[in-house]
Amino acid sequence: MSNPSATGSEEREGQEFPAKREKPWLFRTYSGHSSAAASNALYHTNLRRGQTGLSVAFDLPTQTGYDSDHPLAQGEVGKVGVPICHIGDMRLLFDRIPLERMNTSMTINATAAWLLALYIAVAEEQGAPRAALSGTIQNDIIKEYLSRGTYIFPPQPSMRLITDVISFTYRDLPKWNPINVCSYHLQEAGATPVQELAFALATAVAVLDGVRDSGQVKPQDFAKVVGRISFFVNAGIRFVTEICKMRAFARLWDAICRERYGVAEAKYRLFRYGVQVNSLGLTEQQPENNVYRILLEMLAVVLSKDARARAVQLPTWNEALGLPRPWDQQWSLRLQQIVAVETDLLEYDDIFNGSAVIEAKVAALEAEARAELERILEMGGAVAAVESSYMKQALVESHTRRVQAIESGALPVVGVNVFTESAPSPLTAGADGAILTVDPAAEAEQIARLAAWREARDGDAVARALADLRVAAQTGGNIMEPSIAAARAGVTTGEWSAALRQVFGEYRAPTGVGLAPAASDAERLRLVRAEVKRVASRLGRPLKILVGKPGLDGHSNGAEQIAVKARDCGMEVVYEGIRLTPEQIANAALEEGVHVIGLSILSGSHVPLAGEVMTRLAAMGLGDVPVVVGGIIPPEDARRLLAAGLKAVFTPKDFDLTAIMGRIVGIIDGAYPQAA
Asked: Catalytic residue at 89?
């Protein structure tokens, strides 16, 4: 079989094949599910198919610092990624994968130091020197407070952990990127291109200021630290704007490195980024259209050589429906390979240099982002902007405007609000519903393995390692070497996190909902408001909705938009943010006297978590309170939930929030024939 990237020059049918091409970006797919063994098998499959780097997805208990047998982990184990409870799991995850020859990206934030420690410990068991390891951990905790919600500790201790990781890696892992400043999830949370630029750069400034002021890095070495900062970026469907955004990112970052940190060498000022294109834009309706969206969005980050991504991972066409299958991942991988290998893109310098249109748009984005960045720095920087809820409120507001634009038709989305007529798709006609379903037995098997691990390890060694870890946390020592020692001793993810929770405490970020602007007083909204008033008058008190997020899913964008819309419709809203237990939700329903409960679950754990909420409500005598649920819910699961007594199931195809509110008011009206 010939090498598709081979050099040489030949003539074929009058076409010249040039001798020199640029090296392509890293090809990645976002992978991990069920168990370490199943994920390892998937990695080997993807590598055989031409993937050139690994991207590891961890499950929510791992991301939020809980072992698989913790009560909050119920229903979440192995659902959105691989569970990693200890070094044994990490060994299995990378079995027969030589880590010194691999470039591994790990999407992990609050527990980033711990997962990196496990990775280093396994690599050293393989005989790999630390200096040979290459890859990245996401490690951007600020965007967790704003979007995904997988934070644990308050902002200041969280920033200290980031500083420790960066300071450690620049000495011991010089090829490692110790943070991916992540604007990807900001766009998912509703950020405009200007907000993406400004908020991400403000985060990078906060991180670098913290490292500089920590005293852990010699001043003469600080430029090297700056040179290891990387970014993880989103690319949406407006790909001309996205191209300009990436070019603006590169110029703004170069300016910050020069002006704020005095970095003289150009190689340390390069804007280095990986990308996953926009999951926000994937549609449940006509999901085959997502293939074209993914391709166009990828072009935004590879067409411009001067602002080209270093690594690209693509979602699959069916991720709005559920977890992708290996074949779906292969399809997305082939999109990258065709562009890199078959086209002539890598044979040319930047094709946009000299374009007046591109230059004008880049300049406009630069100017607006600079102004927004200055506002954030004037209020004390990114951490202060998190604590004051400034950035969260801004994201909720911009996301509200986007949702309203789709709802009104001002923002057209093919298959959703325009060109909706559709033939049935043969791609979704299979018995599996075109998605991968995690075997429910995987959770029990993982818990059994965890119990066996605890039984077999040296308990005294674990206790000593945890004591050393707490001392480092309390005294300001760098957390990495004690974490690596804890990994070798057999400490679990939950134990590592619990030790730091004892020292640092926990945190709940502001929701940003209370201050979001009201929607425009459109006719359809006025009709729903009138119906809310009518039903409230009949029942003798204002209608009250509880919006709850059970489990560990921190993707709160949908819940926030439902809360804002319910408020705008005239309902009283109870929303306390993310990571609530079913017991807490049921207790809140009792204490607040709500008329309806809306559950938001995007992690795939909707069946067990919704069932547990219903069970607890019944035990409290609240079985008549209607419950609805929203999330990425396959049709078969929706049927199960409705059969179990839920009153409605909403999925991404239900984009019309005003219509959703109308249905919910109707559910309340039907549930209470008498005043409630």
From this structure: no
List 79, 399, 549, 606, catalytic entry: 549
Q: Are 241 and 361 in contact (CB under 8 A)?
A: yes
- Given the residues 143, 544, 555, 595, the one annotated as active site: 555
Catalytic residue at 606?
no
Active site residue 185: yes
Which candidate in 185, 245, 544, 606 is catalytic? Answer: 185
**No. of helices (H) and no. of strands (E), the chain:** 25, 17
Residues 6+ apart with CB under 8 A from 236: 187, 242, 277, 278, 280, 281, 297, 300
Fold of 25-388+423-428: TIM Barrel (3.20.20)
From the candidates 468, 553, 568, 637, give the one annotated as an active-site residue.
553
Q: Are 145 and 386 a contacting pair, CB within 8 Å? A: yes
- Tracing tokens 């119906």 back to the chain, one arrives at 531
Q: What tens digit of pLDDT does each residue of 215-253 get?
A: 999 999 999 999 999 999 999 999 999 999 999 999 999
Cα separation, 605 vs 440, whole angstroms: 10
| pTM of the predicted protein model | 0.88
Distances, alpha carbon 617 to alpha carbons 145, 587, 611, 620, in Å:
30, 8, 10, 5
Torsion of CA 374, 379, 383, 389, to 10 degrees: -110
Sequence ranges of the domains in the chain: 25-388+423-428, 523-671
**Active-site annotation holds for 399:** no
348 is catalytic: no
Known catalytic residue: 30?
Answer: yes
Kindly name the residue from 43, 66, 145, 184 that is annotated as catalytic: 184
Which class is 523-671 in CATH? alpha beta
